Structure formats: C-alpha cells, structure tokens
Amino acid sequence: MSIHEIWQQFVEGMRATGWLEYIAVFSGIVSVWFSRKENILVYPTGLLNTTFYVYLSIKGSLIGEASVNFYYTVMSIYGWILWAKKDKQQHHIVNIAYSDKKWWVYQVLFFASFYIVIFISLTYLKKNFAPGAIPFADAFASATAFTGMWLMTKKKVESWYWWIATNIASVPLYFIKHYVFTSVYYIILLVMAIWGLKEWMRKAKIHSQASKPF
C-alpha cells in the first residue's frame, strides 16, 4: 500500500467515524491521563470508554476487541474498589511499586495463558463468527492489554510496559480494520503510556524511599 493510499484510507476513515467512537476515544484519553496522575477517576472515565467500545466492537464483529473491553469493564470495577481501600490510619492499601521476581513470573504466565487461549479461540471463530479477526495480532494486543490492566489495579510500574506493547500493536491493527480514529487514539495512548511509565517510576522511587526505616 502506497503512502497516498494510506492517506486516502485515513481521510475516508475519519469521515466515517461516528459520535460513539469519538466519545469512546476522548473518555479513554482522559482515563489514561488520570491513571498517570494515580487519580481514582481513571476508573469511572475508563468505564465510559470500555462500555462504548464493547458496543462498537460487537457491532463491527470484532470479537477479540469486544472481549478485551468487557474485561476492562470488569477490571475497572475491581480496580476502583482496590484503589479506594484504606487501612485504619487512612493510608491507601495499594501503592505504586516495582514488580519483584515473583510478580514478573506471574505476569509472564498471565500473558502467555491469555495469548494461547485467545489465539486458539479466534482461529476457531474466524471462519463463521469473527471474520474481521487477525488471530496472532489480536491475541497479542488482547493478552498484553489484559496483563497491563491487571497490573494497573495492583499499581505495578510494569503495567505501563504492557500498555506500551498494546498500543504499538493496536495502531496498525485498528487501521487495517477501518477504525482510523481509534488507530490515531492508540498513537496518543502510546505517547501517554511512555509519559505514565516515567511518572510511576518517579513515584515508586519516592514511595520506596519513604517506606525505608531510618
């Protein structure tokens, strides 16, 4: 595909973008902004984003994307509860921190398990139920997203690495499927994820130093 053809597809895709996709995109950007700031509003704004994307994905027969956003919805409710929890001294129970070796094993196994299940499922469903699926790419984007969302509820710094991988994979994936505005959205999310990673690394360092005994 030439640069001219890519540009034409981009223009046509932007013209075809409906208001629901605009709302989903902008609420998603706001949600990532709040996550970078470690603000609990990441979850209500994220729920708005995921609810619309579940509908749009089902409408477009994108089963992989629909499952990811349904998972986001469930995990947003879980994360909202977890981030709001405080101890008797009114300190938040979950704080930004790096993963230790055990958590690295957990997340790699988590990713691998979801990748295998999603890849096999989409390969089977592609023929009759999900013609728009690209099993290997959808499985990667979905599994990294599942892992990133789970780690974010636990406030693990590494969640941003998984988000970065999701965003990189999603840019061409959505473009190919003619969700051009969503493809642009993932470019914005990629930049914000890199920014979020740096911010959480800084906060993890501060929290680690504050928790050290004198």
Structure description:
The protein is 78% helix and 0% strand. The protein contains 8 helices and no strands. It has helices spanning 3-16, 19-36, 42-59, 63-84, 101-125, 135-153, 159-176, 180-211. The mean pLDDT is 85.
How is the secondary structure organized here?
Blueprint: H1 3-16, H2 19-36, H3 42-59, H4 63-84, H5 101-125, H6 135-153, H7 159-176, H8 180-211
Helix pairs in contact: 2-3, 2-8, 3-4, 4-6, 5-6, 6-7, 7-8
Q: What attributes characterize this protein structure?
A:
globular; 0% strand; 8 helices; 214 residues
Let me know the average pLDDT: 85
SS-based class: mainly alpha
Order of helices and strands: HHHHHHHH
Low-pLDDT segments, ≥5 res: none
Tertiary shape: globular
Query: How far apart lie the N and C ends?
Result: 62 Å
SS strand fraction: under 5%
In DSSP terms, counting alpha (H) and pi (I) runs of 4 or more, how many helices?
8
Radius of gyration: 18 Å
Sheet with most strands: none
Number of domains: 1
Please report the total strand number as a whole number: 0
Helix fraction by DSSP (H/I, runs of at least 4):
over 70%
Summary, kept brief:
With 214 residues, the chain is mainly α.
